[in-house]
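Data availability (excerpt). The following record was deposited with the supplementary files.
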Amino acid sequence: MNTTPSKTQQLIVSIGALSVSCIALVVMTGWLTRDSTLTQIHAEWAPMQFNAALCFLLGSIAIHMESRSSRPPTLLLGSIVLTVGALTVLQYALAFNFGLDELFVRAHFHTKTSHPGRMAPGTAFCFTALGIYLVACVHLTQHLARLGRLLAGAILFSFGIIALIGYALGIEQAYAWEEYTRMSVLTASALTILGTALLASRWSRDRAYKAVLVVTLAGTVLSLAALHLNRGAELLAFRARLSLDSSLPVWILQKDAGMALRYLQSAGAFIESSQEITAEEFERFIGKVAGDVLSVAQYEWVPLVSQENRKTFEDDISSESGGTYMIHEKNPDGSLRVAADRPSYYPVKYMVPAQRHSSRLGLDLSSEPGSFATIRSALERGRLTVSSPIISHTQARAGQRRIYYAAYPVRAPQGGGYIGIVGGIVDTQGFLDRSLAGLPDTGLDLFIFDTTEDPDGILIAQSISKGHRGHFETRPYRLRSQPLPSTSALQTLPIAGRTYTVLCVPTERYMLQFTALPWIALIVSYGMTVSTAFFIYWLTDRSDHLKRAKRFLEIQTGVGRLLQEENSLGDIARGVLQILCRNSPWSVGGFWLVGPSGLLYCSAFWISPGHQYRRFESASLSPDCRHDQSLIGRIWKSGHHEWIPDISKTPDSLRREAAVADGISSGIGFPIHIRNRVVGVIDLYSRAHQEPDLELLHVLAAAGTAIGQYLLRLEAVSRLEEQRQDLERVNLELDSFVYTASHDLRAPLRAIGSFADFLEQDHGPKLDAQGRDYLSEIKKGVRRMAALIDDLLTLSRLSRIHNPYENVEMTSLAKEVLDRLGFDIDSSGVEVVVHDPLPTIRCDRIKMGELLINLIGNAVKYSSKLSGRRGRVEIGYLDRDAEHVLYVRDNGIGIEPKYHEQIFGMFKRLHTQEEYEGTGAGLSIVKRIVEEHRGRVWLESSPGKGSTFFFSIPKNIIERPGPENRS
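Predicted structure:
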């Protein structure tokens, strides 16, 4: 399976990498020049952070280098991307700052940015996935690298496209994780482009790629959906927990405030229960608690004095205190003057502590609009009331905090009307600051606003949790004019008629306990996606591999089976092309052989059914086409295969135009070798684009080798047939010569024998003893020569004559042979025994009889001259699984083991003619007859212990064709 990207795919990667690089460079320029339009496009959108732009630049370069198999740069750049992305993810997960966010550039743009200079969590996750792939792809196999590239591309594409859809539809949750930095629209665009380039760079038509792509995209979308669903569920739990956690400090603050102001009510109750109290009594009562209640800066007893009782009131206090006391009021510049006449007065009678603001003694509070409004409200409501903030001119100029005036109405002892108020100068801001400082650390930042008069709120106190590292927006908060974090909570804090609003903002440490579940869901979902993708890839790839292996096996077995059939070379060539085209992506092919003239010629041309290649077929089979200059010619000359991914760019000019006209895109050719000699070429073509496939090349090369072996076998068979015919012709000539020579030798031999007889009859008495011996030797030589001629004729007849096979009862045949040898057996005195029954054997009856005559005759001859015992010959049978084994055993002189093979040679004798007569051709005749029956003959013998000759005949013997029916 090919995994090398094509030029088109490499072009897509280059375009995508260049586009992302341009986006990254533009954003980096915007950060360096502080131009927000280059970093965030829209003022209300989050900017692409400098770190993200840097990772995009390095990542796009690394992807471009990886597509061109440049491993060292890919590993280096991928390591940087992985480091930045992983550390950023850890910063979010651990709520810790490694100092990476503003390492390169100081962050100037904070729109929708939780941490200055820090990229969004989704962006960091994508860079981590991309970095892992870039680092790992250097060490992975091609299949795993393609799968990793697919997963990384799917992650980048999914995150980017979902964020872009969120921007288009105004769904912030699509690109926002909690209150962390939002993903920029530029980041989403770059992720989409880079993911598309990664997916397209390894696009393949195989099912494994498509299945994994669908699973990865679906898994990424489902993972993000699971993230958002878990975030939604957790947000509900988070809000409930936040409401509970934020209500606790508000309850404590309200309780502390109630306890502080309750002393004013206690002072009022003390006065209500007494007819008259002195300054010492008031100071002694209030002094017990004044040191503890630090929020009340000053306690005052303010009675209601009418115009008629003014003089008496002033004199009583003057005599009591030993000084001058009068009711006065303030001038606009802050100086004091005697109070003007009015129906009633609310002068400060007693004050604790007395040494502070002593000028307030005798001050008519009805002359102060703020204080008098509070007193009137308290008298109307009949309960404790706190005024609006009071800031004196001196305090305003000094920038001090605001203070409040609190008033509690006091009734007459007998239950009549109100006789005055117990008032106090309340430092609410200071009280809240001290109360907030005493609260336990809950991981919440608290901001207290006074919203009695201003709905937008005035910040009067705040508490920043320990370990705080910043929020979504800069402080101070505004309740209406500024968007508040969606995870914040608002609590109402009523204090003595005033309304305060407490803004509770969770810190990262607080958020960390709630953000684990979505992250775990995302990791588990992606883990399942990756596992499922790997499983489906393995399953489909395994299935495709098995199908490919099955097709390749069909090619090998089909070609092998076809080459074993006895067909013509043209049928073999067409069958091979049909098998190759049926089990491979090729649809047309040619089978070319080197002819007697030394040039290539087309032995067969095949076009798969349903296809038409008229122009290409015509150009290939044209007699004017010099095929030695085409693809097949180049393969013929080089002896190596050649793969053409794009036939329009091949130098094969002879058939290129016809191929392009018929829609052919790719081609392949491979040689047919015979002992390092190219004797032919097979070329195949397809309309579909085909990339080089090493497995298919190996299978085709094996097929070419098998075809070469078949052609070599044809040559060998042809040469063997020629040699057989030559040998048969020589054998026939030799047999004819032997037969002719034997007949020609008989005439002079008979003449010599006749003249020897005439000489003995006519002149025998005249010859002396030596002459008669000479004459006797002549007659013996004639007889021996006649026997040799008879044996030669027998051997010649064995080669020339092939009698038909028949079922022969060996017992009957053995008895016939014994009848023919009856005279020799009787004269020798040897006992011959036939072990009945002998088997029925399918054989040549005449030649089998000749075999028994020679074996039994030899056994009788070499058992006839034994001294002291009678000769014995046995004829028996041994049954074997696949053959009949017969034997002839004698108790004669025996044969030494070293001669057991030699005695079967032509005319081989171990004794002299005087000892035992014979020519030595008998055993040669036996061996030739046995071998003609596809059997074997052997001997077991030792000197003085006799000999046993065994011969075997196959039970399922196949008759050899004679000369008359040989082809």
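Summary of structural features: The radius of gyration is 61 Å.
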